[in-house]
Amino acid sequence: MVHGRVSRLSVHDVRFPTSLGGHGSDAMHTDPDYSAAYVVLETDAEDGLKGYGITFTLGRGTEVVVCAVNALAPHVLNKDLGDIVGDFRGFYRQLTSDGQLRWIGPEKGVVHLATAAVLNAVWDLWAKQEGKPLWKLLVDMDPRTLVSCIDFRYITDVLTEEEACEILRQSQVGKKEREEQMLAHGYPAYTTSCAWLGYPDATLKQLCSEALKDGWTRFKVKVGADLQDDIRRCRLVRNMIGPEKTLMMDANQRWDVPEAVEWMTKLAEFKPLWIEEPTSPDDILGHAAISKALAPLGIGVATGEQCHNRVIFKQLLQAKALKFLQIDSCRLGSVNENLSVLLMAKKFEIPVCPHAGGVGLCELVQHLIIFDFISVSASLQDRMCEYVDHLHEHFKYPVLIREAAYMPPKDAGYSTEMKEDSVNRHRYPDGEVWKKLLSAQGN
Ligand SMILES: C[C@H](O)[C@@H](O)[C@@H](O)[C@H](O)C(=O)O
Ligand SMILES: [Mg+2]
Could you identify which of 52, 195, 197, 352 might form a hypothetical disulfide with 417, taking C-beta atoms 3.0 to 4.6 angstroms apart as the criterion? Predict the structure, then answer.
């Protein structure tokens, strides 16, 4: 049972110099250093368990998220864990509705990333105390308790608590079989690792042929900076993977609405399943216009990795602005808010294909999507979870990929815990890795 009072919250600025190798680069983020604001929660329970939570950042700015986490800390410190999870909706609302802090959000930007980091740590601790991996904690929870974690404010016009409960009740049928299916075969994944924008063609070719050997059948390519480059790179990848395998494209918000349509019309010959983030993540009607224009070409719009909150997802769904919905475990307000989006997607019959990669996103989001399959969507049709092959070695419970599928984690918790040594070495700016790099740069 859940027990203990939160006695300490610490937060670390942890950065990995991925920009040195062009890893993670796209048309808008040309030099990301995959980073995290990393939260550790301790309690007075004397059970040796701690809660770990991350939110993903790209390097500079992580210090700002760390500040925001510290600003939220008074809401968590000295709280009884049982009281937090016993009224999780209330606690979520307390964090996101702080009468002063909400002015610098609300439920968006830095303060929401900080909320995600803190709540991810709470979920990790809860699952650890229950001795279950997070996905299993969620799968075993009765519908009433699950929905009691969700703040339905601003979404009751499309999803009420009763409807959410009903969706979960209906999906009880066949749950056991789906859990067995996940344990045996895992959740299908696609890879983004081969075709970051900063990779030269030779690297792209080599990584693509390795991925094919490893059994990958779905590939995502970064596009959007230069049309001729895109045509060359997409042709290269399509030729290597053949006509049957799946290709996705990701523009990371590079285009205006008409530009997105024109550009994608020129890339249509490579038969992409989707174009991801064609324009500003805030432009709901723009996404709808692009979706409509590209539908006759068989190209769907995917978005969500920079979608602020459940309200924007609600409107994207209402406006028929997307064909694939990409939840993010660290941008939305943790599991609580993600649950509401999974349930809305189910209601609108839109497949969820989570955003992952970064540092730790694969570790976290696998729990959500496995839960989604078992307890909400009950379908694998048009669904897959992103995978990126970076930085897993820094995690205590790294993802396990088998035959291009995420195998359900077995360890208790939310797989958020990093190795202590990795954290120490990559702490910014005084960890060993950064001390060396910064002094080499003359800083
Ligand atoms: C800066 C990052 O690597 C992004 O390019 C990445 O999250 C990407 O959009 C993705 O879909 O994986
Ligand atoms: Mg993307």
Answer: 52
Does the ipTM exceed 0.90?
Answer: yes
Report the length, in residues, of the chain. Answer: 443
* Centre of ligand 1 from the C-alpha of residue 358, in Å: 7
From 75, 136, 220, 222, the catalytic residue: 222
User: Residue with the nearest Cα to atom 11 of ligand 1?
Assistant: 355
Mean pLDDT of 95-120: 98
Are 40 and 9 spatial neighbours (Cβ–Cβ below 8 Å)? yes
Instruction: Give me the residue spans of the domains in the chain.
Output: 170-421
Of the candidates 12, 355, 367, 426, the residue annotated as catalytic is 355
The amino acid that residue 430 corresponds to is D
Known active-site residue 355: yes
With 80 as the cut, is the pLDDT of residue 443 above it? no
Q: Which phi and psi angles does 130 have, rounded to 5°?
A: -85, -10
Question: pLDDT tens-digit profile of 169-225?
Answer: 999 999 999 999 999 999 999 999 999 999 999 999 999 999 999 999 999 999 999
CA distances for 315 relative to 69, 137, 292, 376, angstroms: 28, 30, 16, 20
Q: May I ask the CATH class of domain 170-421? A: alpha beta
pTM of the prediction? 0.98
CA pair distance 415, 399, nearest whole angstrom: 8
Backbone CA torsion sign across 132, 336, 308, 249: positive
